[in-house]
Protein backbone atom coordinates (compact mmCIF):
# COMPACT_ATOMS: atom_id res chain seq x y z
CA UNK A 1 0.00 0.00 0.00
CA UNK A 2 1.31 3.43 -0.93
CA UNK A 3 1.66 5.93 1.91
CA UNK A 4 0.95 9.52 0.94
CA UNK A 5 3.64 11.90 2.16
CA UNK A 6 3.88 15.67 2.11
CA UNK A 7 7.01 17.77 1.87
CA UNK A 8 7.39 20.29 4.66
CA UNK A 9 8.51 23.71 3.51
CA UNK A 10 10.78 25.68 5.83
CA UNK A 11 11.87 29.31 5.53
CA UNK A 12 15.26 30.00 7.13
CA UNK A 13 16.08 33.63 7.95
CA UNK A 14 19.84 34.16 8.13
CA UNK A 15 22.69 33.43 5.74
CA UNK A 16 25.26 32.72 8.44
CA UNK A 17 26.63 29.33 9.38
CA UNK A 18 23.70 28.35 11.64
CA UNK A 19 21.13 29.16 8.99
CA UNK A 20 23.08 27.50 6.19
CA UNK A 21 23.87 24.37 8.22
CA UNK A 22 20.25 23.92 9.29
CA UNK A 23 19.02 24.53 5.75
CA UNK A 24 21.29 21.80 4.38
CA UNK A 25 20.27 19.34 7.10
CA UNK A 26 16.61 20.08 6.34
CA UNK A 27 17.20 19.36 2.67
CA UNK A 28 18.95 16.10 3.55
CA UNK A 29 15.82 15.04 5.44
CA UNK A 30 13.56 15.77 2.49
CA UNK A 31 12.26 19.24 3.30
CA UNK A 32 11.82 22.07 0.84
CA UNK A 33 13.85 25.10 1.96
CA UNK A 34 13.95 28.81 1.21
CA UNK A 35 17.01 30.52 2.72
CA UNK A 36 16.80 34.31 3.03
CA UNK A 37 19.60 36.64 4.01
CA UNK A 38 19.53 40.41 4.55
CA UNK A 39 22.46 41.05 2.19
CA UNK A 40 24.93 38.32 1.25
CA UNK A 41 25.91 34.97 2.72
CA UNK A 42 28.31 35.11 5.69
CA UNK A 43 28.07 38.90 5.70
CA UNK A 44 27.80 39.29 9.48
CA UNK A 45 29.29 37.33 12.42
CA UNK A 46 30.04 34.24 10.30
CA UNK A 47 32.38 36.36 8.20
CA UNK A 48 34.32 37.63 11.20
CA UNK A 49 34.53 34.70 13.60
CA UNK A 50 37.74 33.34 15.07
CA UNK A 51 35.94 29.97 14.77
CA UNK A 52 38.01 28.05 17.29
CA UNK A 53 36.58 24.54 17.72
CA UNK A 54 36.72 23.70 21.40
CA UNK A 55 35.03 23.22 24.75
CA UNK A 56 37.90 24.47 26.86
CA UNK A 57 37.46 26.13 30.23
CA UNK A 58 34.59 25.98 32.68
CA UNK A 59 30.95 25.88 31.55
CA UNK A 60 27.75 24.00 32.53
CA UNK A 61 27.81 20.33 31.65
CA UNK A 62 24.97 20.41 29.08
CA UNK A 63 26.79 23.18 27.20
CA UNK A 64 30.06 21.28 27.37
CA UNK A 65 28.41 18.10 26.07
CA UNK A 66 26.81 19.95 23.18
CA UNK A 67 30.11 21.58 22.22
CA UNK A 68 31.88 18.22 22.35
CA UNK A 69 29.23 16.79 20.00
CA UNK A 70 29.86 19.81 17.78
CA UNK A 71 33.60 19.10 17.63
CA UNK A 72 32.80 15.45 16.88
CA UNK A 73 30.83 16.43 13.76
CA UNK A 74 33.76 18.50 12.55
CA UNK A 75 36.08 15.54 13.06
CA UNK A 76 33.79 13.47 10.85
CA UNK A 77 33.94 16.15 8.17
CA UNK A 78 37.71 16.50 8.58
CA UNK A 79 38.39 12.77 8.15
CA UNK A 80 36.45 12.77 4.88
CA UNK A 81 39.20 15.01 3.45
CA UNK A 82 42.07 16.03 5.77
CA UNK A 83 43.64 18.14 2.99
CA UNK A 84 41.05 20.94 3.26
CA UNK A 85 43.03 23.99 4.31
CA UNK A 86 39.93 25.59 5.86
CA UNK A 87 39.35 22.88 8.50
CA UNK A 88 42.24 21.62 10.59
CA UNK A 89 42.94 20.16 14.04
CA UNK A 90 46.25 21.48 15.37
CA UNK A 91 45.28 21.92 19.02
CA UNK A 92 44.87 25.04 21.12
CA UNK A 93 47.32 26.91 23.35
CA UNK A 94 46.18 29.17 26.19
CA UNK A 95 47.54 30.97 29.23
CA UNK A 96 46.37 33.51 31.79
CA UNK A 97 47.35 37.13 32.33
CA UNK A 98 50.49 37.95 34.25
CA UNK A 99 49.72 37.85 37.95
CA UNK A 100 46.92 35.31 37.46
CA UNK A 101 49.02 32.20 36.92
CA UNK A 102 46.86 30.31 39.40
CA UNK A 103 43.99 30.61 36.89
CA UNK A 104 45.94 28.44 34.44
CA UNK A 105 46.41 25.70 37.03
CA UNK A 106 42.75 25.89 38.08
CA UNK A 107 41.61 25.67 34.47
CA UNK A 108 43.84 22.67 33.82
CA UNK A 109 42.53 20.95 36.95
CA UNK A 110 38.92 21.57 35.91
CA UNK A 111 39.48 20.36 32.34
CA UNK A 112 41.16 17.15 33.40
CA UNK A 113 38.30 16.49 35.84
CA UNK A 114 35.96 16.62 32.81
CA UNK A 115 38.22 14.23 30.87
CA UNK A 116 39.01 17.07 28.48
CA UNK A 117 42.47 16.56 26.99
CA UNK A 118 44.53 19.20 28.79
CA UNK A 119 48.33 19.31 29.08
CA UNK A 120 50.47 21.73 31.09
CA UNK A 121 53.61 23.02 29.40
CA UNK A 122 56.61 25.12 30.28
CA UNK A 123 58.25 27.54 27.82
CA UNK A 124 60.87 24.86 27.14
CA UNK A 125 58.38 22.11 26.29
CA UNK A 126 55.72 24.16 24.53
CA UNK A 127 57.57 24.28 21.20
CA UNK A 128 57.35 20.49 21.02
CA UNK A 129 53.56 20.73 20.63
CA UNK A 130 53.23 24.18 19.04
CA UNK A 131 56.06 24.72 16.57
CA UNK A 132 56.74 28.33 15.57
CA UNK A 133 55.58 29.79 18.90
CA UNK A 134 58.19 31.96 20.62
CA UNK A 135 58.93 30.28 23.98
CA UNK A 136 59.98 33.63 25.41
CA UNK A 137 56.38 34.83 25.00
CA UNK A 138 55.01 31.90 26.98
CA UNK A 139 54.77 32.11 30.81
CA UNK A 140 55.93 29.44 33.23
CA UNK A 141 52.69 27.46 32.76
CA UNK A 142 50.49 27.22 29.68
CA UNK A 143 47.78 24.77 28.63
CA UNK A 144 47.79 22.87 25.35
CA UNK A 145 44.56 21.13 24.35
CA UNK A 146 45.52 18.65 21.59
CA UNK A 147 41.96 17.87 20.48
CA UNK A 148 41.00 21.38 19.41
CA UNK A 149 40.85 22.78 15.91
CA UNK A 150 39.64 25.63 13.75
CA UNK A 151 37.49 26.29 10.71
CA UNK A 152 37.19 29.16 8.27
CA UNK A 153 33.43 29.68 8.32
CA UNK A 154 33.12 31.49 4.97
CA UNK A 155 34.80 28.48 3.33
CA UNK A 156 32.47 26.11 5.20
CA UNK A 157 29.46 28.14 4.04
CA UNK A 158 30.65 27.83 0.43
CA UNK A 159 31.12 24.08 0.91
CA UNK A 160 27.63 23.61 2.37
CA UNK A 161 26.01 25.86 -0.24
CA UNK A 162 27.27 23.56 -2.99
CA UNK A 163 25.13 20.84 -1.40
CA UNK A 164 22.28 23.28 -0.77
CA UNK A 165 22.13 24.13 -4.46
CA UNK A 166 22.54 20.51 -5.57
CA UNK A 167 19.58 19.50 -3.38
CA UNK A 168 17.35 22.20 -4.82
CA UNK A 169 17.32 24.78 -2.04
CA UNK A 170 16.07 28.27 -2.90
CA UNK A 171 18.35 31.17 -1.94
CA UNK A 172 17.08 34.75 -1.64
CA UNK A 173 19.93 37.25 -1.35
CA UNK A 174 19.53 40.94 -0.42
CA UNK A 175 16.15 40.23 1.16
CA UNK A 176 16.44 43.17 3.55
CA UNK A 177 14.90 43.01 7.01
CA UNK A 178 12.84 39.80 6.92
CA UNK A 179 9.87 39.43 9.27
CA UNK A 180 7.96 36.36 10.43
CA UNK A 181 4.33 36.09 9.25
CA UNK A 182 1.78 34.99 11.86
CA UNK A 183 -1.76 33.75 11.40
CA UNK A 184 -3.92 32.54 14.29
CA UNK A 185 -0.85 32.51 16.50
CA UNK A 186 1.17 30.24 14.20
CA UNK A 187 4.13 31.06 11.94
CA UNK A 188 2.99 30.81 8.34
CA UNK A 189 5.94 32.20 6.42
CA UNK A 190 8.09 35.29 6.03
CA UNK A 191 8.01 38.70 4.35
CA UNK A 192 11.11 40.36 2.86
CA UNK A 193 12.04 44.00 3.20
CA UNK A 194 10.39 44.83 -0.14
CA UNK A 195 7.14 43.08 0.75
CA UNK A 196 7.63 39.71 -0.96
CA UNK A 197 5.86 36.89 0.90
CA UNK A 198 7.09 33.31 1.17
CA UNK A 199 4.67 30.82 2.71
CA UNK A 200 6.15 28.12 4.91
CA UNK A 201 5.11 25.37 7.31
CA UNK A 202 7.88 26.43 9.71
CA UNK A 203 10.31 29.33 10.09
CA UNK A 204 13.80 29.36 11.59
CA UNK A 205 15.23 32.66 12.80
CA UNK A 206 19.03 32.43 12.77
CA UNK A 207 20.07 36.06 12.44
CA UNK A 208 23.01 36.16 14.82
CA UNK A 209 23.00 39.20 17.10
CA UNK A 210 19.80 40.46 15.42
CA UNK A 211 17.79 37.37 16.42
CA UNK A 212 16.20 38.93 19.57
CA UNK A 213 15.18 41.95 17.48
CA UNK A 214 13.48 39.74 14.89
CA UNK A 215 11.41 37.78 17.44
CA UNK A 216 10.55 40.77 19.65
CA UNK A 217 7.50 41.77 17.51
CA UNK A 218 6.17 38.25 18.14
CA UNK A 219 5.96 39.00 21.86
CA UNK A 220 9.07 36.97 22.68
CA UNK A 221 11.93 38.38 24.73
CA UNK A 222 15.42 36.92 24.40
CA UNK A 223 18.10 38.72 26.37
CA UNK A 224 20.91 39.99 24.16
CA UNK A 225 24.47 40.59 25.40
CA UNK A 226 26.12 40.81 21.97
CA UNK A 227 29.23 43.03 22.16
CA UNK A 228 31.07 44.74 19.34
CA UNK A 229 34.00 42.70 18.05
CA UNK A 230 36.56 42.69 15.25
CA UNK A 231 38.34 40.04 13.20
CA UNK A 232 41.57 40.88 11.41
CA UNK A 233 43.05 38.90 8.50
CA UNK A 234 46.76 39.39 7.95
CA UNK A 235 48.74 39.60 4.78
CA UNK A 236 50.15 36.22 3.69
CA UNK A 237 53.48 35.15 5.17
CA UNK A 238 55.24 31.91 6.02
CA UNK A 239 54.16 31.64 9.67
CA UNK A 240 54.07 27.83 9.98
CA UNK A 241 51.53 27.98 12.83
CA UNK A 242 49.16 25.01 13.21
CA UNK A 243 47.48 25.61 16.58
CA UNK A 244 45.02 28.24 17.76
CA UNK A 245 46.46 30.52 20.44
CA UNK A 246 44.29 32.35 22.98
CA UNK A 247 46.52 34.71 24.95
CA UNK A 248 46.03 37.83 27.10
CA UNK A 249 46.76 40.25 24.22
CA UNK A 250 45.93 38.35 21.02
CA UNK A 251 43.88 35.38 19.88
CA UNK A 252 45.48 33.88 16.78
CA UNK A 253 44.55 31.09 14.42
CA UNK A 254 45.84 29.88 11.06
CA UNK A 255 43.75 30.89 8.07
CA UNK A 256 43.65 29.72 4.44
CA UNK A 257 46.15 31.30 2.09
CA UNK A 258 49.02 31.33 4.60
CA UNK A 259 47.38 34.16 6.52
CA UNK A 260 46.37 34.48 10.18
CA UNK A 261 43.04 35.46 11.74
CA UNK A 262 43.30 37.67 14.83
CA UNK A 263 40.91 38.97 17.47
CA UNK A 264 40.62 40.02 21.13
CA UNK A 265 38.59 42.39 23.27
CA UNK A 266 41.05 44.93 24.73
CA UNK A 267 40.40 47.43 21.92
CA UNK A 268 36.57 47.49 22.17
CA UNK A 269 36.65 51.05 23.54
CA UNK A 270 38.52 52.16 20.39
CA UNK A 271 35.66 51.06 18.12
CA UNK A 272 33.16 53.75 17.10
CA UNK A 273 29.59 52.87 16.17
CA UNK A 274 28.11 55.34 13.69
CA UNK A 275 24.52 56.47 13.25
CA UNK A 276 24.12 54.36 10.10
CA UNK A 277 25.03 51.18 12.01
CA UNK A 278 28.56 50.94 10.64
CA UNK A 279 31.71 50.73 12.75
CA UNK A 280 35.23 52.10 12.52
CA UNK A 281 38.50 51.78 14.40
CA UNK A 282 41.84 53.62 14.06
CA UNK A 283 44.15 51.72 11.74
CA UNK A 284 46.99 51.99 14.24
CA UNK A 285 44.91 49.99 16.75
CA UNK A 286 44.40 47.26 14.17
CA UNK A 287 48.15 47.15 13.56
CA UNK A 288 48.78 47.05 17.30
CA UNK A 289 46.80 43.79 17.43
CA UNK A 290 48.92 42.46 14.56
CA UNK A 291 52.05 43.47 16.49
CA UNK A 292 50.82 41.62 19.57
CA UNK A 293 50.35 38.51 17.41
CA UNK A 294 53.86 38.89 16.03
CA UNK A 295 55.31 38.80 19.55
CA UNK A 296 53.91 35.28 19.96
CA UNK A 297 55.72 33.89 16.94
CA UNK A 298 59.26 32.67 16.50
CA UNK A 299 61.53 35.45 15.27
CA UNK A 300 58.85 38.15 15.76
CA UNK A 301 57.95 38.35 12.04
CA UNK A 302 56.57 41.48 10.41
CA UNK A 303 52.82 40.84 10.64
CA UNK A 304 50.67 43.23 8.60
CA UNK A 305 46.90 43.57 8.79
CA UNK A 306 45.35 43.16 5.34
CA UNK A 307 41.64 43.55 6.21
CA UNK A 308 39.32 43.72 9.16
CA UNK A 309 35.60 43.47 9.85
CA UNK A 310 33.69 44.88 12.80
CA UNK A 311 30.21 44.05 14.07
CA UNK A 312 28.20 42.44 16.82
CA UNK A 313 29.34 39.10 18.22
CA UNK A 314 26.20 37.03 18.94
CA UNK A 315 25.95 36.30 22.67
CA UNK A 316 22.64 35.58 24.45
CA UNK A 317 22.04 37.42 27.70
CA UNK A 318 23.10 34.54 29.95
CA UNK A 319 25.94 33.41 27.67
CA UNK A 320 24.35 30.07 26.78
CA UNK A 321 22.80 29.04 23.44
CA UNK A 322 19.15 29.56 22.53
CA UNK A 323 17.69 26.73 20.45
CA UNK A 324 14.15 25.59 19.78
CA UNK A 325 10.55 26.43 19.00
CA UNK A 326 8.91 29.51 20.48
CA UNK A 327 6.09 28.33 22.74
CA UNK A 328 4.19 31.56 22.06
CA UNK A 329 4.50 31.10 18.29
CA UNK A 330 4.25 27.48 17.17
CA UNK A 331 6.10 26.86 13.94
CA UNK A 332 8.72 29.53 14.65
CA UNK A 333 12.14 28.32 15.79
CA UNK A 334 15.29 30.20 16.83
CA UNK A 335 19.02 29.47 16.79
CA UNK A 336 21.13 32.07 18.62
CA UNK A 337 24.50 31.33 20.20
CA UNK A 338 27.97 32.67 20.88
CA UNK A 339 29.58 29.36 19.90
CA UNK A 340 28.17 29.39 16.38
CA UNK A 341 31.31 27.91 14.86
CA UNK A 342 31.73 24.97 17.24
CA UNK A 343 27.99 24.22 17.29
CA UNK A 344 27.21 24.88 13.62
CA UNK A 345 27.06 21.31 12.35
CA UNK A 346 25.46 19.68 15.39
CA UNK A 347 22.98 22.54 15.81
CA UNK A 348 21.90 22.25 12.19
CA UNK A 349 21.41 18.52 12.64
CA UNK A 350 19.39 18.75 15.87
CA UNK A 351 17.34 21.79 14.86
CA UNK A 352 16.34 20.31 11.51
CA UNK A 353 15.16 17.16 13.27
CA UNK A 354 13.06 19.17 15.74
CA UNK A 355 11.57 21.29 12.98
CA UNK A 356 10.54 18.31 10.89
CA UNK A 357 9.44 15.88 13.60
CA UNK A 358 8.30 18.08 16.46
CA UNK A 359 10.38 15.95 18.83
CA UNK A 360 12.48 18.01 21.26
CA UNK A 361 16.03 16.73 21.52
CA UNK A 362 17.18 16.20 25.13
CA UNK A 363 20.58 17.79 24.48
CA UNK A 364 18.79 21.11 23.84
CA UNK A 365 16.58 20.91 26.94
CA UNK A 366 18.37 23.65 28.91
CA UNK A 367 18.68 26.01 25.94
CA UNK A 368 15.02 26.79 25.24
CA UNK A 369 13.99 30.41 24.48
CA UNK A 370 11.37 30.50 27.24
CA UNK A 371 13.99 30.66 29.99
CA UNK A 372 14.10 34.45 29.43
CA UNK A 373 10.34 34.89 29.92
What features would you describe in this structure?
The protein is of the alpha+beta class and 373 residues long. The chain folds into two domains: 9-47 and 154-223 and 317-372, FAD/NAD(P)-binding domain; 85-150 and 226-312, D-Amino Acid Oxidase, Chain A, domain 2. The chain is built from eight helices and 22 strands. The strands form five sheets. It has an eight-stranded mixed beta sheet with strand order 6-7-5-15-16-17-14-20. A six-stranded mixed beta sheet has the order 9-2-1-13-22-21. A hairpin with a 5-residue loop joins strand 11 and strand 12 (197-199). The radius of gyration is 21 Å and the shape is globular.
List the helices and strands and how they pair.
Blueprint: E1 9-13, H1 17-28, E2 32-36, E3 52-53, H2 61-80, E4 87-88, E5 92-94, H3 101-113, E6 119-121, H4 123-129, E7 142-145, E8 149-151, H5 153-166, E9 170-172, E10 179-183, E11 186-191, E12 197-199, E13 202-205, H6 211-215, E14 228-234, E15 244-246, E16 251-255, E17 259-263, E18 272-273, E19 279-280, H7 283-294, E20 305-312, E21 322-326, E22 329-336, H8 340-357
Parallel strand pairs: 1-2, 1-13, 2-9, 5-15, 13-22
Antiparallel strand pairs: 3-8, 4-8, 5-7, 6-7, 10-11, 11-12, 14-17, 14-20, 15-16, 16-17, 18-19, 21-22
Question: Which keywords apply here?
Answer:
373 residues; alpha+beta; FAD/NAD(P)-binding domain; D-Amino Acid Oxidase, Chain A, domain 2; 2 domains; eight-stranded mixed beta sheet; six-stranded mixed beta sheet; 8 helices; 27% helix; 25% strand; globular; disordered N terminus
Amino acid sequence: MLVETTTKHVAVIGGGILGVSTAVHLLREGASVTLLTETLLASEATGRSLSWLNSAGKRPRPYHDLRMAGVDRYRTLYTSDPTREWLQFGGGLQWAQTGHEEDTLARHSYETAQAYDSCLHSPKSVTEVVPKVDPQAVPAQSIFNPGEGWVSLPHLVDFLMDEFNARGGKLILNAGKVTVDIKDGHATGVTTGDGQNYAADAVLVACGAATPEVVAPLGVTIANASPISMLVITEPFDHGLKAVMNTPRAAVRPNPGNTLALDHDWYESDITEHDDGSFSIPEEVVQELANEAAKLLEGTPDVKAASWKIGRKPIPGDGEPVFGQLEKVPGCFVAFTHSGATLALIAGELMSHEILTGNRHPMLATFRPERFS
